Amino acid sequence: MLSKPYLKQIFIYPIKSLDGISLKQATILESGALKHDREFALLDQEGKFINAKRYAKIHRLRTSFESDLNLVSLRIEGTEKAVMFHLEQGRVALEAWLSAYFNCPVKLQQNTLTGFPDDLQANGPTIISTATLETLAAWFPNITVEEMRRRLRANLEIDGVPAFWEDQLFAETGETVQFKIGDILIEGVNPCQRCIVPTRDSVTGEQTPNFQKVFVSKRQEFFPSWATPSRFNHYYRVSVNTKIPASETGKILHQGDKISID
């Protein structure tokens, strides 16, 4: 399998479940997470996440951030008016605006140490390849590569490789695969199990008919020889969950960094 993998794109999602932003570089926290990724989360009155799994209307929220990530702009899809809030000084007003939108009490929580990852055991950046996104999009006539990218919400996108190249970055249960992006040591843990979120349009929240059925069928059909079959109790899995050792704290990922597997 000839390839020259490199880090093409870096994405973080400052507020869990809302729009992400593209970065030229990202710093590794002591926890192994990327700095500012999923640093904030929206919680309901029961302390549960307000996310796209539970609240489909979250898809219709458009967010953007100022360069220092302290100011967030919110806009409802289909409207032109945007409102801006400071994430610290304007938090009460932001929570009130979100509570009105979701029609339930909303609290904004912050965790600067670990963020709010979905996988607590593999809380490093998620990884996918550009070729994988292109292949997945080709399975669905009305889904573009950019739309598939928004639906899957991976942190690190690898180019210079074939589709599903990243499936070699995990091994049997209990084992990890060590690789480096630049000089940063990363451990691949498992293929990411997908939820209902990728089945919906990332902007409107509308369901794509038969998305999961087509995905599973095609994923099995195109299953690569270098993947570990035992990690696929079902084929609704794509991208790789990782963890990063504390020894890499403070190191910086850069766009264009080369990737090597130990």
Automatic annotation (TrEMBL):
PROSITE patterns, per the entry: MOSC
Pfam families named in the record: MOSC, MOSC_N
Domain of life: Bacteria
GO molecular function: catalytic activity; molybdenum ion binding; pyridoxal phosphate binding
UniProt xrefs under InterPro entries: MoCF_Sase_C, MOCOS_middle, Pyrv_Knase-like_insert_dom_sf
MOSC domain residues: 91-262
Name of this chain's protein: MOSC domain protein beta barrel domain protein
